[in-house]
Amino acid sequence: MIKKQLIECVPNFSEGRDMSIIKEITDVIESVEGVKLLDVDPGKATNRTVVTFVGEPDPVIQAAFLAIKKASEVIDMSKHSGEHPRMGATDVCPLIPISNITMDEVVTYARKLGAMAGAELDIPFYLYEAAASKKAWKNLATVRAGEYEALPQKLKKAEWKPDFGPAKFNAKAGATAIGARDFLIAYNVNLNTTSVKRANSVAFDVREKGRVKRKGNKLTGEILRNKKGEPLRQKGSCKSVKGIGWFIEEYGVAQISMNLTNINITPLHIAFEECVKSANIRGLRVTGSELVGLVPLKVMLDTGKYFLNKQQRSTGVSESEIIKIAIKSLGLDELGTFDPQKKIIEYNLRSKSETPLLNMDLAGFADETASESPAPGGGSIAAYIGALGVSLATMVANLSAVKRGWEKDWKKFSQHAEDGQAIKDTLLQLVDEDTNSFNAIMEAFRLPKGSTAEKATRKKAIQDATKYAIEVPFKVMEVALKSFDLIKTMANSGNPNSVTDAGVGALCARAAVRGAFLNVQINCAGLTDEKYVANVLKKGKRICQQAEKLEKEIMKIVDKKI
Q1: For residue 327, what is the enclosing H or E element?
Q2: Spatial separation of the C-alpha atoms in residues 503 and 393, rounded to whole Å
Q3: Residue numbers of the chain with a pLDDT score lower than 70
Q4: DSSP string for residues in 246-290
């Protein structure tokens, strides 16, 4: 099962006053299937709108191209004015990795977008940040130097030849910078004070830029300077963090307002902890915090696991429990409700229609299985049995992590439980995917078969869908087989009071493997690729043999202990 790659695109358009123009741009973004518009943030003073949308890479760059094209048609840069630096109708268009994709891959997509736009549109395009073709162009400020007004002269110089598009001035559209950068998190930490001065003191302790060095009093003393007369600076504790203190009248509290520009260097929880440390030294207290906009799931999971580790508690708990710990530890619900379904990007994108079985309760799932509908069938049930089996082993690991007298081994059992959670989550996803594979076969059979071309298309669709219906239960077999290692470890060295739970887990895992193989076998009968079928059946039989052997070994351990 391939996990979806997700990237975010945050284009900035040089229009923030006429919302009808912005709507024309966002309409073309939303016209692309597979893209979800998350946010539209216009600014009147800056005359600029920041748009955020997300999806898989190819739909995202298609939507970005259409947005750049539309902006060049509806925005006239020769008439533009605003407080924010700008050089084009679409001023900047950064792509940001969200999940299951590397920065190098995102750079490739940024360049693909630049090449597409450069070939189709009469606009100069520059690459910046991680996608930059020149070291100096990594910095957006360098690329945008002189802004729109400097473009006529800059484009005449060889050193300012754009990466894509013509080296000539487009008076209406200007120029656009396309980039790849890390996710930026806007994050505010709340203090039990109304003093901006004290909030700034904390911000200066934490932000990378730090504060100017002074003689004597840190706030009012004479500024210390180098031989060139430049102020000397005391660096803050967090790299890739910008910050300042301010007072929010709406809430009646002062905050440290931060931008985390590289969460791989300074994660959310570290920035929070550094604020707590600085506040405590200054006689202040952090009371909670606030996330502005959306965050990737990984940020919340990393935060939750950090605080669980700090408590010496197992990190092998459910995803929802980890997120709950993160919310409570950071106090994200102090100023308002923090809804993970709305604030976490992956959850915001997820549709309940994609996982109808997982959204049922136990009775509903059993009723649906027992109905006259052929799906869910044996494949989905095999995946679910496998998920229950590894869940039992995960439970034993978590019980072992908190067993009195076993405190020194809590981290080892925590890792075992985390491994179990990963296997469980994969098997649960396969519950719905198996039903989806059956539905794909049914859809293929419904295709028209009148003409020779239609018959050929239908035949190919049936064969492709059948192969998909083989690969899904085969994946169940492979994943369920992996769970035996954890189950056997828990039977051998887990909490002895729960050894029978490990035994039941082994029985479930073996049933999952054997049950999924039955689905592999019956679907292989409908496939014409004999070489593929022979290879799958050979591997499947071997997995079944391994599962039976491991089940017997585990049950021998269980029987001996009880």
Answers
A1: helix 319-330
A2: 9
A3: 1-2, 218-220, 352
A4: EEETTTTEEEEEEEES-TTTS-HHHHHHHHHHHHHHTT--EEEEE
Catalytic-labelled residue, pool 18, 76, 80, 84: 84
Same domain? For 337 and 389 the reply is no
CA angle 270–274–276, rounded 5-degree value: 115
**Closest among 476, 463, 460 to 377, alpha carbons compared:** 476
pLDDT at 183: 85
Provide the pLDDT for residue 354.
76
From residue 106, alpha-carbon distances to 111, 123, 145, 527 in Å are 9, 22, 25, 37
Please tell me the predicted confidence (pLDDT) of residue 218: 67
What pLDDT is recorded for position 540?
97
Verify that 38 and 139 share a domain, yes or no.
yes
Helix H, strand E, coil C: the string for 470-517 is HHHHHHHHHHHHHHHHHHHHHHHHCCHHHHHHHHHHHHHHHHHHHHHH
- The conformation of residue 197, written as its DSSP 8-state character, comes to H
Q: Is 84 a catalytic residue?
A: yes
In a shared domain, residues 160 and 255: no
Q: Which residue in the list 419, 432, 434, 501 is annotated as catalytic?
A: 434
Q: Which amino acid is it at 32?
A: V
pTM: 0.79
Whether 100 and 218 share a structural domain: no
Token look-up 């949308």 returns 53
Task: Name the E strands within 63-184.
Answer: 90-99, 125-129, 176-180
- Catalytic annotation present for 416: no
Residue 219 has a pLDDT of: 62
* Residue 402 shares a structural domain with residue 520: yes
CA distance linking residue 339 with residue 350, whole number of Å: 14
**267-285 residue pLDDT tens:** 999 999 999 999 999 999 9
Q: What is the pLDDT of residue 348?
A: 84
